[in-house]
Amino acid sequence: MSQSSSDSTSAWPRWLRRHTLELVACAVIALGLLMLLQPFAMVLYTWSFVTMLFGTVMFMVVSKFPE
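The structure corresponding to this sequence follows.
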C-alpha cells in the first residue's frame, strides 16, 4: 500500500518543512525592511534591497516544499 502525500510522516527532515522555512523567509524580509527604514548606517540601507529580494525568492521557493 502506498502512503498518501497528506500523511504526517515525510522523508523530509523537520527543519526543511514549509512552515519553519516560511517563517525564516518572512523574518529575512522583515530584517530587510528594518534595514531600509533605519537612519543610522548607510551600509545597512545599501544591502536592504538585496536582503528583501533574497527573502522574497526564498519564500517563493519554500512555498513549494511539502507540509
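Residues 42-62 form the longest helix (21 residues).
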